[in-house]
C-alpha cells in the first residue's frame, strides 16, 4: 500500500482548525493570573497539546469516519480523493491519539486528564456507536466543550497547579456554551451531504433560517451573561469592551440572517473573530481580579 504524501497528512490534520483550542488554552493561562516565570514550557506544551495533538487527532478521526459524506460534500479532501490511500487515515488517527496521551502525560496529571477527555470527546463525536455528530444538539455541544471550555480550564489548571477559580470556570462554561453556535455555523456548508447520509445537523433538522437564528442566540446570550458578570465582579471597562464586540456581532448577524446559507462562512469568519476577542478580554479581566485578590 502506498504511503500518503506529507501534504496529504498536513491537510488531514487541518492546521487552520487548531486555532480555537490553542486560543482558548491561552485565555485560560491569562485568566489564571499566574506569572509565566519559569513556566514557559507549560504554556508551549499546552498549546501543542491543544492544537497540533488533540485537535489534529479530532480532525483525522472525523475525516476517517466522514469519508463517505466527504465524497459528496468535499471530494477533494485527502481520504475521498485517494491521496490518503487505504486505511492510512485511520492509522494516523490512532497514532496521534497515542502521541497526544504521551504529551498530556508529560505535562502532569492535569495535562493527561485533559488530553484523555478531549480524545474521548473526539472519538465519541465522529465514531460509531455514539457518533454524536449525527445529532446537531449533542455533537455541537461536544465540540464546544472540547474546543473552548476544556482548553480554557486546562490552561488555567496547568498554570495554577490545581482547580481554576470559580469565576474562571464560569466564564469558560459560558464561552463553551456559546461555541455551540459556532459549530452550527460550520454545518451550513455540508447540508447536502448530511441530508443524504442521515446526519441531523441543526441546519438539516431546523432548516437554514431557523438554525441561523438558533446559532446567533446561542452565541449572543452567553456573552450577555459574561458582560453582566464582569460588571458584578468589578471589571466595568472589560465588560464595556465585550459589550461593544457583541454589538458589532449583532449588526453582522442581521446580514447573516437575511441569507444564512450564502453568508454562513462570511459570518463565521467575522463574527467568530469578535467572539474570541471577547474571550481574551474576559480572561484579562479575570487576571486582574486574581492578581488583586478580588
Word description of this protein:
- Helix 2 (19-32) packs across helix 8, helix 12 packs antiparallel against helix 13 and helix 13 (236-258) packs antiparallel against helix 14.
- The protein has one domain.
- The model has no long low-confidence stretch (mean pLDDT 94).
- It contains 14 helices and no strands.
- 51% of the residues are buried.
- With 294 residues, the chain is an all-alpha fold.
Write the layout of secondary structure elements.
Layout (H helix, E strand, L loop, with lengths): L5 H8 L5 H14 L7 H26 L1 H7 L4 H4 L6 H19 L2 H18 L9 H25 L5 H22 L3 H7 L4 H5 L1 H25 L3 H23 L1 H33 L2
Helix pairs in contact: 2-3, 2-8, 2-14, 3-6, 3-7, 3-8, 4-10, 6-7, 7-8, 8-9, 9-12, 9-14, 12-13, 12-14, 13-14
Structural domain tally: 1
Low-confidence residue ranges: none
Shape type: globular
Structural class designation:
mainly alpha
Q: State the distance separating the first and last CA atoms.
A: 61 Å
The average pLDDT score comes to 94
Rg result: 19 Å
Beta-strand residue percentage: under 5%
Largest sheet entry: none
Helix and strand pattern:
HHHHHHHHHHHHHH
Number of helices: 14
Summed up, what is this model?
The chain is mainly α and 294 residues long. It contains 14 helices and no strands.
Question: What key phrases describe this protein's structure?
Answer:
294 residues, globular
Amino acid at each position: 500500500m502506498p504511503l500518503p504524501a506529507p501534504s496529504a497528512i498536513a491537510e488531514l490534520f487541518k492546521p487552520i482548525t487548531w486555532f480555537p483550542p490553542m486560543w482558548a488554552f491561552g485565555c485560560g493561562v491569562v485568566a489564571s493570573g499566574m506569572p509565566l516565570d519559569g513556566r514557559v514550557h507549560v504554556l508551549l506544551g499546552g498549546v501543542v497539546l491543544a492544537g497540533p495533538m488533540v485537535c489534529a487527532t479530532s480532525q483525522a478521526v472525523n475525516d476517517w469516519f466522514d469519508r463517505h459524506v466527504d465524497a459528496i460534500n468535499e471530494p477533494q479532501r485527502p481520504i475521498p480523493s485517494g491521496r490518503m490511500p487505504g486505511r492510512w487515515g485511520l492509522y494516523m488517527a490512532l497514532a496521534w491519539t497515542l502521541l497526544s496521551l504521551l504529551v498530556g502525560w508529560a505535562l502532569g496529571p492535569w495535562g493527561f486528564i485533559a488530553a484523555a477527555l478531549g480524545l474521548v470527546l473526539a472519538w465519541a463525536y465522529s465514531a460509531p456507536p455514539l457518533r454524536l455528530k449525527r445529532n446537531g444538539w449533542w455533537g455541537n455541544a461536544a465540540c464546544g466543550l472540547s474546543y473552548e471550555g476544556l482548553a480554557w480550564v486546562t490552561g488555567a489548571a496547568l498554570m495554577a497547579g490545581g482547580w481554576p477559580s470559580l469565576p474562571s470556570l464560569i466564564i469558560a462554561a459560558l464561552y463553551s456554551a456559546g461555541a455551540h453556535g459556532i459549530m452550527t455555523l460550520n454545518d451550513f456548508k455540508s447540508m447536502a451531504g448530511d441530508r443524504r447520509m442521515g446526519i441531523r445537523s441543526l441546519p438539516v433538522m431546523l432548516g437554514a433560517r431557523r438554525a441561523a437564528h438558533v446559532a446567533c442566540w446561542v452565541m449572543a446570550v452567553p456573552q450577555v451573561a459574561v458582560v453582566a458578570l464582569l460588571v458584578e465582579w468589578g471589571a466595568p471597562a472589560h465588560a464595556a469592551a465585550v459589550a461593544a464586540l457583541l454589538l458589532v456581532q449583532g449588526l453582522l448577524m442581521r446580514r447573516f440572517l437575511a441569507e444564512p446559507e450564502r453568508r454562513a462562512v462570511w459570518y463565521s469568519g467575522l463574527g467568530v473573530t469578535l467572539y474570541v476577542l471577547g474571550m481574551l478580554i474576559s480572561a484579562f479581566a479575570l487576571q486582574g481580579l486574581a492578581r488583586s485578590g478580588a
